[in-house]
């Protein structure tokens, strides 16, 4: 029975390959080429589950939007590599789908395919480029291979709150759009609902506690350099293998947003959570550029509002949901949850500079500097 439970946990973990859990196609449990994606989009007409959502969050997400859009009928496919049931992100998307229908008298329809139904992150990007997938949502981490400039979002230690991060992300969206356009894509939005945090089987309250800590990181050289400078031993590992590695003591710690820690049941095999808030957990909505450019102005309005609704809903609801998960970890799993100490946060500056210097060897130094300067200005 115990082996069966572990196997089930592993399969769930592998499905949770959305950005916060690793965000790369290498970690996805489902692979689908463009032809498979197109077939799924045609055949799976019942993939959208109606959701009334949270009334307060719907009101926030709907404020000031045009609720009467006379557009011609159009259907879009929206893919996501991770599972979203029971998450604020999932609630936001399902509520936005219903809202978009109501604005357009049922003419603007989004067919949502979560859980890797249209492929992993890499397949979704390729599908969006080729037009077999209209839109996908995921973390920029998996898009860095296509758009190297997105690596600036992997610089740790720049922000202390999500409002500052979102201020910068909003201003840099226009600067990143040309890179997406060159790849045949349209960046609909990018935002940070929360941060990545640290979970561990050892208490982490001072700098010395980080020395030699065996921590799982994404297979991302910038993340690994950041943690190495902090004194840990960063080890890249597929997210689907993480539960067992922590359970068997092969690793001491890992870092992910709250939803990934709780969703993959990592709270069952960890004793401490430190809200390090070291790197924002960024989400993007990306479209096939030709599809977007070919829509009427009314259809574009409905599409833009759909994405904005998702963003507003998730941003407004994440803090309360994170608090709920924090309480769950403490009461149900006996985990000690603490804020990061000033001593540890003071280490971020030097670690960030190591990453910045490394990054400038791979992408335009001026672009890196402009992002870092904007982050520092927003933090003041």
Task: Please render the helix and strand layout as text.
Blueprint: H1 2-15, H2 34-43, H3 55-62, E1 74-79, H4 88-103, E2 108-113, H5 121-130, E3 135-138, H6 162-182, E4 185-195, E5 197-200, H7 207-210, E6 214-217, H8 221-229, E7 233-236, H9 242-247, E8 253-256, H10 258-263, E9 272-275, E10 280-288, H11 289-293, H12 297-333, E11 336-339, H13 342-345, H14 348-359, H15 365-379
Parallel strand pairs: 1-2, 1-3, 6-7, 6-8, 9-11
Antiparallel strand pairs: 3-10, 4-10, 5-8, 5-9
Tags for this model:
5-stranded mixed β-sheet; 380 residues; 15 helices; alpha/beta; 16% strand; 6-stranded mixed β-sheet
Task: Write structural notes for this entry.
With 380 residues, this protein is of the alpha/beta class. 47% of the residues lie in helices and 16% in strands. The chain contains 15 helices and 11 strands. It has helices spanning 2-15, 34-43, 55-62, 88-103, 121-130, 162-182, 207-210, 221-229, 242-247, 258-263, 289-293, 297-333, 342-345, 348-359, 365-379, and strands at residues 74-79, 108-113, 135-138, 185-195, 197-200, 214-217, 233-236, 253-256, 272-275, 280-288, 336-339. The strands form 2 sheets. A 6-stranded mixed beta sheet has the order 7-6-8-5-9-11, with helices on both faces. A 5-stranded mixed beta sheet has the order 2-1-3-10-4, sandwiched between helices. Helix 4 (88-103) packs antiparallel against helix 12 (297-333). The longest helix has 37 residues, at 297-333. It is globular and about 60 Å long. The N and C termini lie far apart (54 Å). Residues 1-51 have low confidence and may be disordered.
């Amino acid at each position: 029975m115990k082996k069966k439970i572990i196997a089930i946990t592993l399969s769930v973990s592998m499905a949770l390959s959305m950005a916060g859990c690793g965000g790369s196609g290498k970690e996805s449990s489902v692979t689908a080429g463009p032809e498979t994606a197109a077939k799924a989009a045609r055949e799976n007409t019942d993939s959208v589950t109606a959701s009334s959502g949270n009334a307060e969050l719907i009101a926030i997400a709907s404020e000031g939007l045009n609720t009467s859009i006379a557009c011609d009928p159009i259907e879009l496919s929206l893919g996501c590599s991770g599972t979203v049931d029971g998450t604020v992100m999932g609630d936001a998307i399902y509520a936005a789908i219903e809202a978009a229908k109501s604005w357009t008298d049922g003419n603007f329809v989004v067919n949502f395919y979560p859980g890797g139904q249209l492929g992993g992150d890499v397949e979704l990007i390729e599908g969006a480029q080729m037009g077999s997938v209209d839109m996908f949502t995921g973390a920029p981490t998996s898009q860095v291979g296509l758009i190297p400039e997105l690596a600036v979002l992997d610089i740790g230690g720049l922000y202390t709150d999500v409002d500052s991060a979102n201020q910068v992300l909003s201003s840099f969206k226009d600067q990143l759009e040309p890179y997406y356009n060159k790849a045949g894509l349209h960046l609909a939005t990018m935002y940070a609902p929360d941060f990545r945090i640290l979970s561990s089987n050892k208490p982490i309250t001072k700098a010395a506690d980080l020395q030699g800590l065996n921590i799982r990181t994404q297979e991302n050289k910038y993340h690994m350099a950041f943690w190495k400078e902090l004194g840990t031993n960063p080890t890249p590992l597929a997210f689907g293998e993480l539960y067992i590695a922590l359970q068997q003591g092969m690793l001491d710690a890992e870092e992910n947003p709250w939803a990934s820690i709780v969703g993959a049941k990592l709270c069952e095999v960890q004793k401490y959570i430190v809200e390090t808030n070291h790197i924002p957990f960024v989400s993007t909505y990306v479209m096939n550029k030709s599809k977007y450019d070919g829509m009427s102005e009314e259809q574009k309005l409905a599409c833009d509002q759909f994405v904005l609704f998702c963003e507003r809903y998730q941003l407004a609801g994440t803090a309360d949901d994170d608090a709920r998960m924090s309480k769950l970890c403490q009461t149900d799993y006996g985990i000690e949850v603490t804020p990061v100490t000033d001593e540890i946060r003071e280490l971020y500056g030097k670690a960030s500079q190591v990453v910045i210097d490394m990054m400038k060897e791979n992408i335009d130094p001026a672009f890196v500097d402009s992002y870092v300067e904007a982050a520092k200005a927003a933090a003041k």
